[in-house]
Structures are given as C-alpha cells and as structure tokens.
Amino acid sequence: MFDDLRDLYQEVILDHGRRPRNFRRLEDADRTARGDNPMCGDRLELFLKLAPDGSIAEAAFQGRGCAISTASASLMTETVTGKSAAQAHALSDQFRALAMTGSCPDCGEALSEEMERLQPLSGVHEFPSRVKCATLAWHTLNAALDGAKEASSE
Amino acid sequence: MFDDLRDLYQEVILDHGRRPRNFRRLEDADRTARGDNPMCGDRLELFLKLAPDGSIAEAAFQGRGCAISTASASLMTETVTGKSAAQAHALSDQFRALAMTGSCPDCGEALSEEMERLQPLSGVHEFPSRVKCATLAWHTLNAALDGAKEASSE
Amino acid sequence: MSFDVARIRADFPILQRKIRGKPLVFLDSGASAQKPRQVIEAMVRCMEARYANVHRGAYFLSEAATEAYEAARAAVARFIHAGDPREVIFTGNSTAAINLVAHSWGRGVLQPGQAVLVSEMEHHANLVPWQMLRDEGRGIELRVARVTDAGELDLEDVAAKLTDGKVGLVAITHMSNVLGTVTPAERLVRMAHAAGAKILFDGSQAAVHRPIDMQALGADFYAFTGHKLYGPTGIGVLWARLEHQERMPPFMGGGDMISLVTLDRVEWAPPPAKFEAGTPPIVEAVGLHAAIDYVSAIGMPAIEAHERRLVDHAMRRLSDIEGLALLGHAQDRGGVFAFSLDKAHAHDLATLLDRAGIAVRAGRHCAEPLHARFGVEAGTVRASFGLYTTEGEVDYLAEALTKARAFFA
Amino acid sequence: MSFDVARIRADFPILQRKIRGKPLVFLDSGASAQKPRQVIEAMVRCMEARYANVHRGAYFLSEAATEAYEAARAAVARFIHAGDPREVIFTGNSTAAINLVAHSWGRGVLQPGQAVLVSEMEHHANLVPWQMLRDEGRGIELRVARVTDAGELDLEDVAAKLTDGKVGLVAITHMSNVLGTVTPAERLVRMAHAAGAKILFDGSQAAVHRPIDMQALGADFYAFTGHKLYGPTGIGVLWARLEHQERMPPFMGGGDMISLVTLDRVEWAPPPAKFEAGTPPIVEAVGLHAAIDYVSAIGMPAIEAHERRLVDHAMRRLSDIEGLALLGHAQDRGGVFAFSLDKAHAHDLATLLDRAGIAVRAGRHCAEPLHARFGVEAGTVRASFGLYTTEGEVDYLAEALTKARAFFA
Ligand SMILES: Cc1ncc(COP(=O)(O)O)c(C=O)c1O
Ligand SMILES: Cc1ncc(COP(=O)(O)O)c(C=O)c1O
C-alpha cells in the first residue's frame, strides 16, 4: 500500500522526526526566532548561540510539527553548526531550491557534504503542499540571522 | 426579414401605438395613478373619472412607452370606459392571462366583445421580456381603482 | 428508487480516475464534492446553446438565459421548501451569504447593545464575519456557546446566553464540518425566537446530507453553497424571509439591484434583486439546478439513509483502530469524521493516505477555535463522505490507517 | 498570426445556432461575450479530472486544483502586465471588485472630508457603490465629472474638480459601455496622482478590447470581469497594488482569509488571500485562464485592429441610416454603439431585430444618469461587438434597421 513512500519518508527522516536532535531551549541564546506555518499549525522556536566571529556556535529548536518539518529542523541544526552567517544563508538558498525542485542547480558539480546530508528531504518536491513543512526551519533560520523575530511560510 | 412579425405588431397595434386614443391629461380626474416599468423606462399616468355609481365614466393616459405599452394603454382606456370597478378588475385579470399565455382560460367559450378587441396583443406572450410592456397599463388601472398612487411592473 | 451506489458512481467522471496508480478514494466531499456528468453537461449546454446575459435583454438568447436563471431559483426554492422563490438570493458561496447577513442585516437592523450568539464549533465563515462586526466598535457583542466533550452543542449554555434578551441573532451551524454533529435546529429556532432573537443557520454541510424544509424549520436565514451539493463553484445561496430582505439595506451596489438611479438618489430594486448586484453566476445557477435535479431524483431521504449506514460502518471500523482518537461522538451526526492518530502527525498521515489513493484533509478545517477547544491545535485528519462513498472505501481507509500507524511507529 | 474571423467563429459553438430560423447575429457582447470551446473544454476537464477544493489540501487532486487556480492568477497577472501575481484578487464579477474597493479601501483608508470623483458616463457598478458610501453619513463627498456632447470625458471639469485637493479617489471607466468612448487613462492617472488622489479604473469593457498594461498605466486599482472576456460567469478580477492591499481591512470574513483565529482575535492572511474569503470560483478561474490563453494566442493587438476596422465600418453604415441618432462620437472609441431611431421605440426595435436573428440590447444599459444627460430617458438600442463580429453582420444590422424604420413609419 505504501511501498513507494520510502522516497519521501526515508529512514533518516523518520528517525529525525521521531527523535529530533538539538531539540531543546537554549536559555542563553544570542538569537531566537519563531516560525509559523499557519496552514498546518506547525510552529517552532529556533535558538542560536554565536561565536565571537559571528559564526553559529550552537543551534537548537523546540516546537511541534509533522515528521518532515521536525526532521528538517533537526537536520538543519546539525548542518549549520560551525557555519558563518553567509554560509548558512547560502545553504538555506540551496536547500530551498532542493525542496522545491528536487535538485540544486547552484550547488555545482558535486553536492557539498552538507547538502548530501539534506538530500533525503528532496523527495518533498513531489508534494507541493508539503514543501513548506520542509522549508519552515530554514525560513526561521534566515529570520534569526537577520535579527527578525518571526518567520512564516504561508 | 420581418415577415413573421405581423403576429406581434398587428396593424391595430401599430395604429394605436402611433396615434394613441384618449392620450391626454384629465384635469378633473377622480382617480390617478402612475405606472413605471423600470426595466425599459416606460412610464404612464392614468386618469379616471367616475360616474356617481362608481363606474368608469372616462379614462385617459399620458406618458412615454414603446408601441406595445402605448397601444395597450390606448386600447385599455377604450375598453374600460363604462365598466364598473369589478368588471374592470375582471377584464384586467383576463387580459393579463392572455398576455402571459396567449389564451384566456377564464373567458369561457367565446371571448367577450372587450376581450376580442384586446386579442391582437396576445402575440406578446411569445416575447417574455415584452409581456410587462403590455400589462403595465392594466397594473396601473388596478392601482388607480384601488386608490393606490403607483404601480410597477418590475 | 433504490440506492444503487455503483450506478451513481458511474455518473461521476472523476471517480473513474487513478491517482498515483491507485483508484481514487475521495473522502474530502465535506470540503467540496465531485460533480456528476449531469451537472457538467448542463453547464456545457448553457454555454453552447443558451447563453447571454440575463435580465434586461429583449432577445431570444437573453430571454432563454433569464428563464434558466430564474428556473434555478425556483428549483432551489422547491429543494429547500421555501415559501416563495424570492426568498432565494444567489451569492458566490456560503461565506458570501453569511457576510451578506452580517454586513446588511448586522449593520442595518441589529442595534448597538445587542449581541450575536455563535458556537465554538463554527466554521470560520460563520465566526469571522461576526468578529469583524464586533470589532467595528458599533457596540455589538459576540457570545460563544460552548460545545460539550461529546462534541454536541451545550444547550444549557445556549439558554443561559439567551436569558438577558440581548441576543439579536443566533448564528449557528446546522452541521459541523469537523465533528459531523447535527445541531437540534427546530429546538434552536424555538429557543431563539422565544428570546426575541432571529436565527441564521450555516447549512453548508447539512443541506447536502438531509432534506431541508424552510417552512417546517421556521428560521430567519439559511446559507449553503453549491460546490458541496455536487454543483459548481462560484455559487451559493442565502435563503432569507422577505420581511427581513425588505428591511435590509443592500450589500453591494451596481447593475440589476436598482430600480432608479440619478446622480443624487438611488431606489433599490425589490428583493431578491436588491442583493444580486452585477452579472450573476448564470452558468453556475444552471449547474446548481442540474445538481438539485440530480440529488432530488435519487431522493434526499435515500441519500440520508445511505449515509447513515456509512456512518455506522465507519464508527465501527474507526473505533477498532488502535491509537485513533475521534473528535466528537454526537448522537445525531453526519458523514464527517475528524481524528488524530498517535505516532503520526495529521499532515504526514494525509500524505501517506494520498499515496494510497485516498483523499482526506489534514489541518484545522477552518475551525481553529474548535481544535483549540479539544486541545488538538496541531490539527486533525478529516474524512468526509458523499453520496458516492462506499463501505468498501471506508474499509480501505481503515486498513490504510492501521498500516500508516505501523509505518510511523 | 493573421486574423481569420471565420476560423475564430468556428471556435464558438453558439454562433452555429439559428435563432427563429435565422443565423444568430450576436451583437450583445458588451453585456456578456460568448465562450469558445477552449474555455468550455477547460472547465469540463477541470471538473472531470482535476477537481477538489483548493488550499490546505495535502493530496493529489487538491494540489492539482490549487496549482490550476494559482496558475490562473499568474495568467491574469501576465495578461495585464501586473508586477506580481499577488496584485490579482479574484472576485465574483467587476461589480464585486469595485464594491471591494468601496467597502474596504473606501471605509478603511479614505478619510471623512475627502471626495470620490466619478463621471457621468459610469456604469451603475462604478456609481452606486460610491453613492452608498456617500450616503452613509461618514462625510465622504461624491463628485461627478461632466461628459461633453461628443460623449468624451470633460477633462477641464475633471481638473477643476481635482484642484482643491480633497479628492481621495478618482473612480472612472476606462471604456464606456454605452458610448464606446475610451477615456485617456494615462493622462487621468497623472492628473489624479498630481492632485494627491488614487485612481481606480472600471476596465470591464476596456480589458476586452485592447492590451492592458498595469505597469505602464501606473493606476492604483483596476477592475474587470471574466464573462465579458470570453470566460465564465462567476469570476471577476480586482488588480490592486500590494501597498494598498496591505492597508485595506478585509471585506468578507471566512475561511482562507485568515492566518490565525481565536475566539477573541483574528489575524488576516497576507494579500491577496485576505480578500478571498471562502471557496473561490475554482472552475471559473480555470475557465478564465483558458479564455486569456485564447485571446492571447490571437493577440490583443490583432483583436484591437480587427475591432477598429469594424468600428470604422459601423460608423459609415450607421450614419447612412435616416433618422438614426448615435449617442456620442468620441475620437477614441471601441465597438459599442448606442443609438435611437426616430419612429421606433428602443424596445420595439430590439424585438424586431430579434426576429431577424440579431441580438441587441434595449434600455439604459445600467447607465441611467448618462441617458438622462443625453435626454434619452426612454432608452437606446445598443449593438456591441466581439472578436467574432464580422463586417457582414454590421451590414445585416444596417439593413435591418432601415427596414425596421419603414415598418414603424
Ligand atoms: C463598464 C462596465 N462596468 C461594470 C460592469 C459590470 O460587470 P459585472 O456585471 O460583470 O459585474 C459592466 C458590465 O455590465 C460594464 O460594462
Ligand atoms: C460548515 C461550513 N460553513 C461554511 C463553509 C464555507 O463554504 P464556502 O467555502 O463555499 O463559502 C463550509 C465549507 O468550507 C462549511 O463546511
């Protein structure tokens, strides 16, 4: 019945969906932002601690969401740790292209190691109504980096 | 091109349309009423003088309208002169049936002399949007007899 | 006429489709129903042979279109047992019908200091217009009747909120689009009228599932929508008593709703034209007429009976599923089921079901306060039935839910 | 692509019809246009294979319907050269589009003491909503710019009525549905903006007859209607700059126009969803998309050129007819002709023409003040062209008018 669903719900997504990494509040965060997807009621709060050079020292999140948005947020916090703001923004652009089209034209010949890790989420592009689940965390990341308080993926 | 139009625009209608009878204001009318057909802008004013027994001694009208509404008003004023209010109401009902359906089930076997005279207007029933042109004068007659000031065939 | 669901299904071209290689199991009729070929063909015939703008046209096609449009009004009137076709106002959808009442009757007749009473189970269409009226600062209060844990309207709370006589309008759903609950309409009419209030029903769901009788019901306003009744989008209905229409100022201004216009002065056309500004949904009215003919030929009582069997069957099958929590279990209910499944988020579940060819809705179904009331802010999955739904489809849904739970476990 | 009117006519099933035994000569496209099979088929395909309610549906058919609905929005945006598809709001018709501006922008943004400037040649759809606003007692004034004897907008009068800076909105037709006059839109935009006013165009007629470019025009609001553009009934368009949409309170409340609802509080969805409450005209949007594709494939410039030839031809033929008085003779005009004939009342004339298979309209064409302005309260006959109109049809009309005059003489 669901044989062909493994393209969307790959094991790594189910795993991160069930047991999200960095799922906690950072009390001493330098940046926080809230993300809302009013369509499906998903919401998350993102916390960033910045290193003296402005790069992301630590990233964590809390909230409620479907497997895809939770897994995406979980994978994101892992991926952006240690990155500069510019690098994180670039990853965000690349990831959103991947989620919307299934591929990433700006990524060059080979995917970066980071994009390889996010690759399992690319199946979402076949489900237009779910793309926003996958991108919510990244919208929120942009908002946090830009100093905004809220992001919406409506 | 218009050969088959003689069913609607019979000679008597064209004639009454061009040279309406009793087309004047009765300054000493006992009853007057205005009729409006907002759809096509036709309007007429009806004047009645009543005999001591309440019957219609004289009927006249003024206003603007298409050939059908003018002819209908003209023929009506001729037909109702000398009639009691009850007779005029009955004629009004019969005429409206004639205009809407092309026949008059309540008229009995033979048409009354009055209905014979109105018969040329029966062709209007094939033109739903024109029925109101033919009935405007009769609506206004009912209003005048009932002591109302305005009638509308919207 | 006996209810032959296979023959009915053959009337719906879309039900012959495969979705991702699987037969379509369409369980989202509560959001919008599919259209039988009779409706599609009526619209095509109108556009191919009998189309022109209605009213004011003194030529054959315009007369034919006007006749068809007014025949649709008469068909709606017969369908809901209205006393007079003029009680039927065509709008764009239910939402527009309710907004018409809120704008026109709400601003023109309801007085400052009066209140509107809605319930916790309203669709946003019957909540937001009244919130907007409240928030305009004209002194209109909004009261909200509670829903019980069983998902029924709390009639004691309704009574309590009516006692001070300040409620000018009760605006309440006739059937919840989430809980499936059918509200006790006759009783609500008596309660409202006894308290001096008028009453409006949001019949968007109810009108589709059972016979509706305006003369027996005795309400003041009743709204429903064409696209849920197997008819086209772009058309809705407000039934409103003539005495109310007379007192209501118009909502939108334009052509066909006036009887006289000068630069200084306007006179409104008589009801219902007063509320139908501009070119109406002509082709859609013809489509709705065909839809009404279609369901009437089958018979609303037969449709209701079919649905009762389906509801009973679904109750049994769904309650067998481990971890499934149904929202509401009212005594009197129609074929709409909202639920959550432990282990699986509503949206993941809907996507999984979609892969199996099953169309269900996930989210809060335009009833956020109700989801808050039941503590399911994250949303539910909703399966809703139409006259073409079969027991086999319900079984297939149950099987898929069981497998989905295992998938996410 | 060259303009092949015979091939175009073959696309319109209704044009193959006979009326009372005579070929249909449809000269009422200004009231509503006929539909090509491409539009009819697109609607059928939508209902047979790609239908479900849009938005919020996480399953295949709903995604497909949502995609089709939003693709229609994008197509409209391209058609009128909007800067952003979000500037396109779907409504039920032009009338609803203009009422949306009057209700929301007129009540929410326009200030007491400000004025709205319309003209004597407005269709009731762009007059009555502003009269209703004036008559609400909120201190909004209504000014009416004069029309010259030639049937053109009196620009000096417009300038005079703008000088005191009190006008907040100029609401004016882009093409008169009676006189055929095309107003100098770019110039009006400059005049309005220089006087500190916003400007709305009623483009119901203009958008059908020539290319429309929102970016070049620089207006604030632009309204038009699907059924005159060879598309379905039940759908209209309001183009509105995003900055205006942001400041406008919503018009109707309901589903899909909110981003958050609690019992106490509502947050509106971003534009344009904020103005599209409830289930939108989904099938109609698909039909409108097909209509836009249809006229775009022919090319609006080609359609305009065809119509210019027809207009020139009609001017020659009609001015040859004894006793015929044309209403207006503007320099810049489209294919709409209103006239009276001595000896014959407009309604009698229309009935006569109908007998010859010719569909024309008689009356005041929802423009009573304009008919009063020209002293023709009893109404006129109006012939209006579409892209399928031929010179032969114009000749046939002229011949019929000559014979009709003799008939009534
Ligand atoms: C100039 C003009 N404005 C507005 C309208 C109203 O359009 P609709 O009836 O589609 O709302 C029309 C058509 O009747 C028109 O010609
Ligand atoms: C109970 C209820 N009310 C109102 C509506 C709104 O109907 P529409 O979207 O056609 O205006 C719906 C459907 O979505 C509904 O289920």
From TrEMBL, chains A, B:
It holds the Pfam family NifU_N. CDD domains: IscU_like (cd06664). One of its GO terms (molecular function) is iron-sulfur cluster binding. Residues 9-102 form the NIF system FeS cluster assembly NifU N-terminal domain. One of its GO terms (biological process) is iron-sulfur cluster assembly. Belongs to the NifU family. NCBIfam families: SUF_scaf_2. This is SUF system NifU family Fe-S cluster assembly protein. It comes from Roseicella frigidaeris. The lineage of its organism: Bacteria, Pseudomonadati, Pseudomonadota, Alphaproteobacteria, Acetobacterales.
Automatic annotation (TrEMBL), chains C, D:
It comes from the Bacteria. Keywords: Pyridoxal phosphate, Transferase. SUPFAM superfamilies: PLP-dependent transferases. Its EC number is 2.8.1.7. Gene3D superfamilies: Aspartate Aminotransferase, domain 1, Type I PLP-dependent aspartate aminotransferase-like (Major domain). Its cofactor is pyridoxal 5'-phosphate. Belongs to the class-V pyridoxal-phosphate-dependent aminotransferase family. Csd subfamily. PANTHER family: CYSTEINE DESULFURASE, CYSTEINE DESULFURASE 1, CHLOROPLASTIC. This is cysteine desulfurase. It comes from Roseicella frigidaeris. The lineage of its organism: Bacteria, Pseudomonadati, Pseudomonadota, Alphaproteobacteria, Acetobacterales.
